[in-house]
Design goal:
single chain; about 600 residues; five-stranded antiparallel beta sheet; two-stranded antiparallel ribbon; elongated; binds zinc ion
């Protein structure tokens, strides 16, 4: 058995056997050999690029980037000295860059990746490999404090991601589009940290054109993060920086500056930054005044947003004044009896029924007045003859006057916003039957990207997914602002605002999905309905109509009786349907909800 003591004895035994030599001799010889070896080793590392490169890889693999990097740099220098050209060393440069970034030498890492990316070698790489290198470089840029370069890279990724950046439904999770979106999502934490210390980032560049480009990139990124879970902080940093840049370069009243208020404002409110939200909405309102006149119903959106902020701040008198001002605007524009006469007609034509996971449509529900959108001059994103390019006529009265129906009004809205924004706008998806939705869901449901049948507004033929420049409409689009301000005048509302729970899954914010409810109902929703709660509003519609027709006006800060009186929700249902009160899911909805899992987006 081995014990420490006999081990020591054993060593002594050996020492005794070699006692002819002096111990000093052994020590000296060992030292000489060690020096010789180390000298040789060092000389080899200094003269042989292969040895240096091996040493570099070994240390990098051992997670010792601080020690690895100098060997990498030396190997690189030797290879260049030995006559290798840029192409030969491009791949190795990306390896050395990793070590430099890991040892916090970000500038050098960025520099090396930059050089490598400029090579033919990089251009011939598999696209995903190249994107990965671009991502690495951009991440190093964030760490180096060069946010302007980094946001440019990720903004270009958002463009390349197309629909996948809008959480778009049809894209396959393994697609290149989704890969681009994934890289952008992956940079969120770094951006959050980089924008953490100051409320707004100050761009280094002084040139107005470059500054504006940075603002555009940051707006795109901010909007991207705003649509995702836990993205509020990164979104606020990006969007407030973009807002400040545009304000200083273009002015506070420029349309592009104002546009950000609609995305940034709700984030501020969510974060409790109410003073900032107030300033944004006030700026947005005053900026539009000269163009639209202060008593324009279009601007009521900003009044409503501002009143909501005042309510949250406890400034009830100011909130009340705004609500009353809004009411006068609507009264002047649309008349005193504006809601009384239309109640019966809207109910009969069934354009205002709620549809969600709480209000299911049965498999037999199908509209009988579908028409081709193209016949009404609505630009279509798919073959005009297919069912998906159809919408309900939903005429105000049966004999279809050309202007008083869904497709004619959508055509007007599209035409208005196309000329206001310069964007190309088209219908991406209109009617989808229960069966079509069932098949789509069966095919994609496991990934949770398609709404289960019976919950989709597309089955009613009243919902329209809108494409801008051949991808889903985004909140940063000029045309989106136009829709937000004007859609209600044509009978359309945004069906899935931020934070809604109308569909199974986490957040089903869909800035591209607009739904027809009829002109009067859309007006009422804007004038007196709860902000960004369209389904709750539709479910309690008779209550809101009753209130409007009787001239009753609730005080600011009072609980909304229409939202809290559950018995009224039953009245809201169209004939033959038993709706579930909002917030109390029935069993079938719950089953579908569980089955759909964590759906991120849908069609
Ligand atoms: Zn849709």
């Amino acid at each position: 058995m081995f014990t420490p003591s006999n081990g020591v004895l054993g060593f002594r035994g050996v020492a005794k056997a070699m006692a002819l030599r002096s111990p000093i001799f052994f020590a000296g010889a060992f030292l000489a050999l060690a020096i010789a070896y180390l000298t040789y080793f060092n000389i080899t590392l200094r003269t042989d690029p292969v040895a240096a490169e091996n040493r570099f890889e070994l240390l990098l693999a051992a997670d010792a980037p601080r020690r690895a990097a100098p060997h990498g740099e030396r190997a690189l220098a030797m290879r260049v000295r030995n006559g290798e050209d840029t192409e030969d060393v491009a791949a190795f440069k990306t390896r050395v860059a990793i070590a430099q970034i890991k040892r916090n030498n970000y500038d050098r890492g960025v520099d090396l990746l930059e050089q490598a990316l400029l090579s033919t070698w990089a251009r011939n790489l598999d696209i995903r490999e190249r994107v990965r290198l671009q991502d690495q470089r951009a991440r190093a840029e964030i760490l180096a404090g060069d946010l302007e370069s980094a946001v440019a890279v990720y903004a270009s990724f958002i463009e390349l991601a197309g629909d996948a950046a809008s959480r778009g439904g049809e894209d396959d999770a393994d697609s290149l589009n989704a890969y681009y979106a994934e890289q952008v999502a992956g940079a969120r934490a770094l951006f959050t940290e980089a924008l953490n210390h100051t409320s707004t980032y100050k761009p280094v560049s002084r040139d107005p054109t470059t500054k504006l480009a940075t603002a555009n990139h940051m707006a795109a990124l901010g909007s991207f993060y705003a649509m995702r879970d836990e993205g509020a902080y990164a979104a606020a940093g990006m969007l407030s920086t973009a807002y400040q840049i545009r304000k200083s370069v273009l002015g506070g009243d420029h349309k592009d500056t104002v546009r950000l208020a609609l995305i940034l404002g709700p984030i501020y409110v969510e974060m409790g930054r109410l003073d900032d939200a107030e300033e944004l909405y006030l700026d947005a309102f005053h900026a539009q005044e000269p163009v639209k006149r202060s008593n324009s119903p279009d601007l009521s959106l900003y009044l409503k947003l501002l009143a909501g902020v005042y309510e949250k701040q406890g400034r009830m008198t100011e909130a009340q004044a705004l609500y009353e001002h809004m009411r006068r605007i609507f009264q002047d524009a649309f008349g005193g009896q504006r809601y009384a006469v239309n109640r019966e007609r809207d109910r009969r034509s069934d354009v205002n029924r709620p549809v969600s996971q709480y209000f299911l449509l049965d498999s037999g529900y199908a509209p009988t007045d579908l028409v081709s959108a193209a016949a009404y001059s609505i630009p279509t994103g798919k073959a005009p003859s297919i069912d998906e390019m159809k919408l309900r006529l939903a005429a105000d009265n049966g004999n279809d006057p050309r202007e008083a129906n869904l497709p004619a009004r959508l055509a007007q809205l599209v035409s208005l916003c196309r000329s206001e924004s310069g964007d190309s706008i088209s219908l991406r998806s209109g009617y989808r039957s229960y069966e079509t939705q069932r098949i789509l869901h069966q095919r994609n449901g496991r990934r949770g990207t398609v709404t289960p049948p019976g919950m989709s507004e597309h089955q009613t033929g009243l919902g329209a997914d809108i494409n801008v420049n051949n991808r889903f409409m985004r909140p940063t689009d000029r045309s989106y602002q136009c829709f937000e301000e004007n859609a209600f005048r044509f009978g359309f509302i945004l069906s899935y605002p931020p934070g809604n729970d109308y569909l199974p899954g986490e957040d089903s914010h869909e800035p591209w999905h607009w739904r027809y409810v009829g002109v009067q109902t859309a007006h009422l929703y804007r004038e007196a309905g709860p902000y960004h709660k369209p389904q709750e509003f539709l479910a309690a519609l008779p209550c809101y109509q009753e209130r409007a027709a009787s001239g009753y006006f609730p005080a600011a800060g009072e609980p909304d009786i229409c939202l809290t009186q559950t018995p009224l929700l039953a009245v809201a249902a169209s004939a033959g349907d038993t709706p579930q009160p909002i917030g109390e899911k029935d069993n079938s909805a719950r089953i579908l909800n569980d089955a759909a899992g964590n759906g991120r987006s849908r069609q």
